[in-house]
Specification:
By secondary structure, the chain is an alpha+beta fold. It has helices at residues 11-22, 26-35, 40-48, 67-79, 89-100, 103-115, 192-195, 235-271, 283-311, 317-342, 353-361, 370-380; strands at residues 120-124, 140-144, 147-155, 165-171, 185-191, 200-204, 214-224, 228-229, 273-274, 277-278. The protein contains twelve helices and ten strands.
């Protein structure tokens, strides 16, 4: 950070994102929500503005910006009432290619991802039987000559229907053959579009918000051996290296949501007159909004502290997880206060509160639940015994 106000950093980037978002007001999102449709036009606009390629190096057609700038982009999207969940995965999934891919993979994919002719939005990790116990996943990738044959199932694979590529984590050797439980998993960058109908089936999952999430089934799906990222068997380590970035970026979105809810709630409290005076004059209305504001301010500080540590080459696991938890809590508290302030009108679609209310609730659960973050902090920050196997 260069100031005590994270919102002041990357001001030009924030202004540019806000201008893009202004082209996609509430009615646009309400229409998509009603039809359960993907925001193609919005994603295209962000891509054309160079915002989704912010962290791709300039030599590959990106902007070469740091994580703090990427966090500012995602925060601004949510602060302006839009939803970056349609495209945020590209920010952190392509990091695996950057950090662990070979020169040919970078030349082949990164320029096309940066220009938007390829979308890398799908991240195939979670499975129905293992959930967040990633080391227990069962999807296998078996080497056969110059190819791998993939069998298994992934769940909560968001945007799979709207992504050309997928970053896939699969088991390349049985657990009993590994010296450590963290070994035997490998990461692949696969051509998902080409595999649909040829070993891959995608099944949409309808959820409480318009999140474009799916189940993905692999049945004898053949992928080139060149799809392998880095070394075989080291994939779990590669995935872990990107999790801090994921936590920080999602936390920034939550800060944006909190700011949107607080601005919306405060504006309504100033304008809504009951018993011949604005409802915002009542402390019963003021205090929940003010408390949510204070908590959001504190969460914002740890989010950008974690981002600065990441940009400095540190390993901010404790800070990134704390940021994600506190920012998600802050956005949910702000959502509650905003909805309560609006009363019955908060449930009306035209105010957009109920849509954003549903969207921000997700981050109490994803990409990692609050309980698992608390387990991590207890063990890593406080030195307490591990509470799960």
């Amino acid at each position: 950070m260069t100031s005590f106000d994270p919102s002041a950093d990357n001001a030009a980037i924030r202004e540019g994102v806000a201008q893009v978002c202004a082209r996609f007001p509430g009615p646009y999102w309400r229409d998509l929500d009603a039809r359960r449709a993907y925001p193609d036009a919005f994603v295209k606009a962000l891509t054309e503005g160079g915002y989704l390629s912010a962290m791709i190096p300039e030599e590959y057609g990106g902007s070469g910006l740091n994580l703090s700038a990427a966090a500012a982009i995602l925060e601004e999207i949510h602060k302006n009432g839009c939803n970056a969940a349609a495209c945020h995965a590209q920010m952190y999934t392509m990091g695996a290619v950057l950090r662990h891919g070979n020169a040919e993979q970078k030349r082949k994919y990164l320029p096309r991802i940066a220009e938007g002719s390829l979308r890398l939005q799908a991240f195939g990790v979670t499975e129905p039987t293992s959930g967040t116990d990633t080391l227990a996943l069962r999807t296998t990738a078996t080497r056969e000559g110059d190819a791998y044959v993939v069998n298994g199932q992934k769940i909560w694979t968001s945007r799979a229907e709207h992504s050309d590529l997928m970053l896939l984590l699969a088991r390349t050797s049985p657990p009993d053959e590994a010296e450590r439980r963290t070994e035997g998993l490998s990461v692949f960058l696969i051509d998902l579009k080409a595999l649909v109908g040829s070993g891959v089936t995608i099944k949409p999952i309808r959820t409480m918000m318009n999140h474009a999430t799916t189940e993905v089934f692999f049945d004898q799906a053949r992928i080139p051996a060149s799809s392998l990222i880095g070394e075989e068997g080291k994939g779990f380590r590669y995935i872990l290296s990107g999790m801090n970035a994921e936590r920080i970026l999602i936390a920034a979105e939550c800060i944006g949501d909190a700011k949107w809810f607080l601005a919306k709630g405060a504006a309504y409290a100033r304008e809504r007159v009951v018993f011949r005076r604005p409802i915002g004059a009542n402390q019963g209305v003021q205090f929940p909004l003010a408390r949510a504001f204070a908590h959001a301010l504190a969460a914002e500080a740890i989010v950008y502290r974690a981002a600065a540590m990441y940009d400095a080459g540190q390993n901010p696991g404790v800070e990134a997880n704390s940021a994600k938890m506190l920012a998600a809590d802050a956005s949910w508290e702000a959502a509650e206060a905003c909805l309560q302030t609006h009363g019955g009108f908060g449930f009306a679609e035209e105010y957009d509160v109920e849509r954003k209310f549903r969207e921000t609730r997700l981050y109490q659960v994803a990409p990692i639940s609050t309980n698992l973050i608390l387990c991590f902090l207890a063990e890593r920050a406080l030195g307490l015994p591990k509470s799960y196997a």
